[in-house]
Amino acid sequence: MKALHSRGFTLIELLVVIAIIAILAAMLFPVFARVRESGRATACAQNMRQITMAFLMYADDNDGRLPGTQAYRRTAEIYGQIAYGDFSTGALSKYLTTKVLLLCPSVSAKDKQWFRDNFRQDLLFNYSVNGYTTYAGCSGENGDRYKAHIMGLKLSIFPEPSRTIHLVDENVRPNIDSTLSQYIVNNELFFLEDVTSDKHSGKANVTYLDGHVGQVPGTSQWRTARWPDGSYMFHGEPLNP
Questions:
Q1: What Å distances lie between residue 147 and 52, 70, 144, 225, 236, CA to CA?
Q2: What is the pLDDT of residues 26-63, one digit of tens each?
Q3: How many other β-carbons are positioned within 10 Å of the β-carbon of residue 172?
Q4: How far is residue 99's CA from residue 71's CA, in Å, rounded to a whole number?
Q5: Contact at 8 Å (CB) between 199 and 192?
Q6: Across all residues in the chain, what is the average pLDDT?
Q7: How far apart are CA 153 and CA 159, in angstroms?
Q8: Which of 73, 177, 208, 233 could be stapled to 85 by a disulfide with Cβ–Cβ 3.0 to 4.6 Å?
C-alpha cells in the first residue's frame, strides 16, 4: 500500500496565521485594558462610598460633626505637610476595617515606588478629604478654622449636601508646575493646588456629603475647577460653623 503523507503548513501559511493572530491581539488588548480599568474604577467608587459612609456614621455619633482633618491619623497637620501617624489613631479607625480601602486600585506600583523614594514612607492612601468640608468652609473668624480643624464641621451648615464634594480620588504625584509646592504633597487634605487623579479614563471619582458617588474631570484643581454653571467645584462661600 502506498503510504499516506499528511500535508504540512507552508512557511507562507504560517506567517499569515501569525500575522492574523498579531492583528487580533492588537485589537483585543486595548479592549481588555478598558475592561480592566472599568473594573478598577468601579472598585475605586465602592471604596470611596464605604469611606464616605464611615464619615457619615462618625457624624451620627458625634453631634452631627465630621471628623476634621484627623480622620485618618491624629497627627495630621492643618496645612500641607505629610502626616506621620498610625491609622489606628484616626477618628475613622473604628468605622473602617482596613486601610487598603484608602488607596485606589489604579495607583500603580511605579507611583508607589515614586512616593516611597521621595517621602521615605509607604503610600497608604490617595482618597483625600475636601478642605472645604474639613475646615476651609469657615470664615476664619474667632478661631473657627482651628476649632474645625480639631472638631470638624457640622453637616447641617452645608446647604446642598448632594452638590458638596467631600472625598476625592487625588493625584498621587505633585503638580510640578505649581508655585505652591508646600501644599501639593499628597496628604489627608485636598486643598489649594491639589489636583484630582485622571486614571479612570481621564476622570476621577468623588463622593458627596449625601453619600453618592460621581466623577469629575481628571487634573481638576481645588482652587480653580468650576462646574458648567460657573460655580466652584470644590469650594464655595465661607459658612458659619
A1: 22, 12, 5, 27, 19
A2: 775 565 566 566 677 888 999 999 999 999 999 999 98
A3: 21
A4: 12
A5: no
A6: 78
A7: 13
A8: 73
Q: Which residues of the chain have pLDDT under 70?
A: 1-9, 25, 28-38, 74-86, 99-100, 139-147, 174-187, 239-241
| Angstrom distance (rounded) from CA 109 to CA 111 | 5
User: Which amino acid is located at 50 in the chain?
Assistant: Q
Q: Residue 203, Cα to own-chain centre: how many angstroms?
A: 10
Looking at residue 6, what DSSP letter applies? Answer: P
Long-range contacts made by residues 209-212, C-beta under 8 angstroms, separation at least 24?
A: 209/133, 209/155, 209/158, 209/161, 209/162, 209/164, 209/166, 210/161, 210/162, 211/49, 211/52, 211/53, 211/56, 212/49, 212/162
Torsion sign (Cα): 220, 221, 224, 230 = positive
**Of 146, 162, 164, 140, which is closest to residue 240 (Cα–Cα)?**
140
Q: Are 109 and 123 in contact (CB under 8 A)?
A: no
Q: Which residue has the cell 460655580?
A: 231
First to last CA, the chain: 100
